[in-house]
Design goal:
hydrolase activity, acting on carbon-nitrogen (but not peptide) bonds, 50% helix, disordered N terminus, 5-stranded parallel sheet, transmembrane helix, membrane, alpha/beta, 8-stranded mixed sheet, glycosyltransferase activity, single chain, disordered C terminus
């Protein structure tokens, strides 16, 4: 059995590692493919001591594929229109429409990442006789990249072109270049390198400056070659608003045709210059290139899908976070103000006797402090404590019996689980008001008295108390202290106001016997018997409320492993309870109200939001690495400020010291991520239908460390005050 569980855990670990790798890979591909760029522009040339005169004084077609550098111009009255930074689904078709209207073909220097996303546009261009050239994959400043990355930019764009057209291109236009006269010592090594890779570097003769939006007339003037000279004319079909380019093109082409100019592609123009020799055409591709092209296209498309889904989920996480914060601040504040009102009371003071059920399994570390705090409560109606020893092997029952407290009874039963122990305790209890507690929980002297006061309202069937972390010395326990105040107690104020309390904590809860009978007692069908019972009570029409004055101090897990085991059980048990009571969403009456209000709130705020919350951290890291660091940092700080505000409100309402919040930043960085993983693991367990066994946590008996517990009265005085029915 142990080895089987180990294999399951190992399998989940492998699955998690694969899922994380896929996620990280998709984000990296998306970051690479979505690199922001600015359209090409004319830059002032730098030093040109290393640039050959053949290049500076030569034509716009530069051939460095051999040791001899050559450059070429187009014949007179020949224009090769070129378009950079596409394909763009908005502007490229409009440019093509103008070209077709005037029966002109052009050369399109494409950005590889855009080709992957819009291959149909490039396919149509190639079929119509237009020429496709390489303009890199992400349009970077190549002089700032290492050689291997520059070559990757070219090869990935080639694969994108292969994916769209089935052929390769030998034409390359480097980003942020213009005419041959502007080539400087920074650009020249890049041109030489491109030649060694088999590319012709294509510059320009004119400069339309359409990237700057100077106006239609200025674009036409900048594109027009002097006299009757031939020219490679650069324009743009992507990278921004190209309305002026389209309008200028529709005037420029007929104007130059009337002057006797012929429009052609770069390769056709070069063929005319060379009198039909050494014509540059697209090279055919093999099966290996097509497979690589398909793999690249698939990776980018999947990355786009993943990122699009992330954006939607990120938006959902933001909406849920804001909704939860607003709801908690408004409704929890309303709850607190109502409870503080001088005229507010549950009703006549409740003085009925109370039976306290303590299920105990190997609780020797904390059972004495817990029982002593319960037996010594100041409830005027009298308190009976029933300790149900669930087959303990550490002498728990003997320790309680040795205390010789007159209002404490010990019931020994074979080990049958916590729900069974609670049901036995209820059956053995003498009174109709029943308090259920954990064996490691310490009550304050007035906790039971406050806890039962809501029963003055005949419609109240159960009461949730205020759970506090008693052992706050370790950083893990301090994180849980913050979580208890914010995530549990503040939530209970919200649920109480909406009358859809989903959970009475196992550490401190009170019930009417009649209410427990209505739901058939405590069920063993889930690992969250407290949540299961609470939902059942709401469904049968009992009101469940929160009494913040009834405080109990529990021992929180002090190690990450113990915390993991506890929260894994809690999360999985909550999912089990929600699934068990899912039909409430279709019911009428109180059950339907809880199903349509309580269950969605638990689902959204208790499961969906924690599952989506990691996206905030993932997008934060993604933004720092691949986007605007300032915007990303400000956005994260705003989210953190909202959480700090919520924490301050929660601590004020619970009358806690704010100095405990100094660990809140660390909680956001470390603790929260652990809870994400726990919830994901719980969801995986629930979806696979696996059964999760109960994990007994190690206790040190430190629950009373921060609890203001008063000494228990002597036995004879307690005996005189005790009421047994």
């Amino acid at each position: 059995m142990t080895r089987a569980r180990g294999r399951v855990s190992f399998g989940r670990l492998i699955f998690g590692a694969i899922a994380l790798s896929v996620l990280v890979g998709a984000l990296l591909v998306e970051a690479y493919a979505n690199a922001e760029f600015h359209p090409d522009h004319t830059a002032k040339p730098g030093q040109r001591s290393k640039v050959p005169a053949e290049v500076i004084d030569g034509g716009p077609i530069i051939d460095t594929r051999t040791a001899t550098v050559r450059s070429y111009r187009l014949p007179a009255r020949t224009i090769a229109l070129t378009f950079d930074d596409g394909p763009d689904p908005r502007w490229t078709p409009r440019v093509v429409e103008v070209l077709r209207r005037h029966h002109v073909n052009a050369t399109f220097f494409v950005v590889g990442s855009q080709v992957i996303r819009h291959p149909e546009i490039v396919t149509a261009l190639a079929r119509a006789g237009d020429e496709i050239g390489v303009h890199t994959f992400t349009h970077p400043r190549l002089d700032r990249l290492p050689q291997w990355q520059r070559e990757l930019e070219y090869s990935q764009t080639q694969l994108a072109i292969v994916h769209a057209t089935g052929t390769k291109s030998a034409l390359l236009r480097l980003p942020y270049t213009s005419s041959a006269r502007a080539v400087d010592d920074t650009q020249w090594p890049l041109i030489r390198e491109a030649g060694r890779l088999g590319y012709l570097s294509i510059m320009a003769d004119t400069d339309s400056r359409d990237w700057s939006g100077p106006g239609v007339d200025a674009i036409i003037a900048g594109a027009t070659p002097p006299g009757d000279s031939g020219a490679i004319v650069p324009m743009h079909d992507g990278g921004g608003d190209r309305a002026q380019t389209v309008a200028a093109l529709d005037r420029f082409i007929p104007m130059m045709q009337r002057r006797g100019y012929t429009f052609t592609t770069v390769s056709q123009g070069l063929a005319r210059t060379l009198a039909g020799h050494a014509v540059v055409v697209g090279a055919p591709t093999g099966a290996a290139d097509k497979r690589r092209a398909f793999a690249l296209a698939t990776a980018v498309v999947l990355a786009d899908w993943v990122t699009a889904a992330f954006r939607v989920l990120f938006l959902a996480a933001g909406v849920l976070t804001i909704a939860r914060t607003v709801a908690m601040l408004l409704l929890a504040g309303r709850h607190a103000r109502r409870r503080r009102a001088a005229s507010w009371r549950w009703g006549p003071p409740v003085r009925l006797p109370v039976s306290v059920i303590v299920p105990a399994y190997n609780e020797k570390e904390g059972i004495e402090a817990a029982v002593r705090s319960l037996a010594g409560g100041d409830h005027p109606g009298g308190i009976e404590v029933v300790v149900v020893d669930d087959g303990s092997t550490d002498g728990t029952a003997a320790l309680v019996e040795a205390m010789r407290l007159p209002n404490v009874r010990v019931v020994r039963i074979p080990n049958g689980g916590k729900p069974n122990a609670l049901n036995v305790g209820v059956a053995m209890a003498q009174h109709d008001l029943i308090v259920m507690v954990d064996g490691d929980t310490v009550f304050e002297p007035d906790s039971i008295r406050h806890l039962v006061q809501p029963f003055a309202d005949a419609f109240v069937g159960a009461v949730a108390g205020n759970v506090k972390v008693g052992n706050r010395r370790s950083i893990v326990a301090r994180w849980q202290h913050i979580e208890y105040v914010i995530g549990f107690n503040l939530d209970r104020r919200l649920y109480d106001t909406l009358r859809c309390m989903p959970t009475i904590p196992g550490a401190i809860g009170a019930f009417r016997r009649e209410a427990l009978q209505d739901i058939g007692g405590i069920s063993h069908e889930t690992l969250a018997e407290d949540t299961d019972a609470t939902m059942a009570l709401c469904r049968v029409g009992w009101r469940v409320v929160y009494e913040e004055r009834a405080r109990a101090w529990t021992e929180a897990p002090a190690t990450l492993r113990q915390l993991w085991l506890q929260r894994y059980r809690w999360s999985y048990g909550t999912m089990q309870a929600m699934w068990k009571h899912r039909r409430a969403m279709l019911d009428r009456g109180p059950s339907g109200r809880f199903g349509r209000v309580g269950l969605p709130l638990v689902g959204f705020f208790g499961i969906a939001l924690p599952l989506l919350a990691p996206l905030i951290d993932i997008m934060f890291v993604y933004g720092l690495c691949f986007s605007s660091r300032m915007v990303t940092t400000v956005a994260w700080l705003v989210m953190f400020a909202v959480q700090v505000l919520t924490a301050v409100v929660a601590f004020r309402l619970d009358k806690e010291r704010l100095r405990a919040l100094w660990v809140l930043p660390l909680q956001q960085i470390a603790y929260r991520q652990l809870m994400y993983i726990v919830l994901l693991q719980s969801l995986g367990t629930a979806l696979t239908g696996a059964r999760l066994r109960w994990h007994k946590l190690h206790r040190s008996g430190s629950a009373a460390a921060a609890a203001p517990v008063l000494p228990v009265a002597p036995a004879d005085a307690r005996t005189a005050a005790l009421r047994t029915g």
